[in-house]
Amino acid sequence: MKQFRSEFAHNYGTYTFGYANYAKREAGEALSEIYESGYLPYSGAREVRDTFYMARSARLNLKFFQSSSENRRIAKKFDGVFTKERAPLERVRNDETFLLFCLDYFEKRHGKAAMPRERLELILDSGVIRSVVLYKKDSSAVAYVLEVSETKMGHYWYSFYDLSLMNQSLGMWLMLDCVRDAKEKGLTYYYLGTVYGEKALYKTNFEGLEWWDGTSWNSDVAKLRELGRSDNGQETAQIDAWKNSLSRF
Predict the structure, then answer these.
(1) Pairing with 50, which of 23, 43, 86, 242 sits 20 to 30 Å away (CA)?
(2) What residue numbers bound the domain in which 92 lies?
(3) Is residue 43 part of a domain?
(4) Within a domain: residue 142?
(5) What is the number of domains present in the chain?
(6) Mind listing the pLDDT tens digit for each residue in 105-159?
(7) Residues contacting residue 143 through CB under 8 Å, at least 6 positions apart
């Protein structure tokens, strides 16, 4: 992988100089090497391909994963309720029902600008998604999960689900269900995305959690929770120099 940095904010008075970190995937390179270095796939600009960003992300060392009391509480709500299938991406890629389901979820949950159709199609065509996990009840779709996978690692990238079940913690159950599958398949690591803000701290309810601290994978979950709770005071409207030249969504 080719790593590069883009200048970000600075405070000369305290000699604080920020750089955002990115990586470009090279031909034939294993995704596991990029993820291991703290990067996640970037999907925020129309012309960007095979590019990954560094962030405070989380993964499970599945050797140490076992269901916690909170996991078991969530499991009781939905285990056995749905049928599940891992469909090859190419089977659903052009399914308009699938695309509209995903777009409707994002518009209602996060606002229409968060996931325009062009961005969803960019993600689907990124070359890293192998399968889509489809959940149904009475032959009707209830949820979809976009999953990145290789021989020994997986990444729960995006989920889309029936929002009428949101307050029953369906989103948490979907992640748990995919984690259990990853453990059963013998994967070594399962990546859960970024952990910023209190709303992301539900990810800390999994045993075997590690998080990227900018240098290495850290297992101090108490520290991660502390960082998440203090994130609101760290937000900035500035963007790094690389993104200034991009056609961002």
Answers:
(1) 86
(2) 57-236
(3) no
(4) yes
(5) 1
(6) 999 999 989 999 999 999 999 999 989 999 999 999 999 999 999 999 999 999 9
(7) 82, 133, 134, 135, 159, 160, 161, 162, 170, 174
